Amino acid sequence: METYALPYDPEIPLICMDEQLIQLLDDSRPPAPMKPGQVRRVDYEYVRKGSCSVFLFTEPLFGWRRVQASERRTKVDWALQMKEVLEADFPDAKKVRPAVCLC
After folding, report:
1. Which of 21, 23, 64, 98 has the maximal Cβ count within 10 Å?
2. pTM of the shown model
């Protein structure tokens, strides 16, 4: 927690990273149309449409974040995400402080 209390330093940004596999779902049947006095009726069954991986990066002391989805989650995908953070988002950083994501 001491890390988050430090002042923002643009030369040493605090980078939090999280990744998650997400199921992509679709309705098995279209929802029934709403009628006056009734709530929308949705069937609980679904059709699985695959999955994707979501990468989340934040710099909480600066108030910055970036979220990107990809078709898969491999070591190469992770490395490309990190490369983009370091080269595109924080190109002038001398060092990056990694942190546990509290999001």
Report:
1. 64
2. 0.72
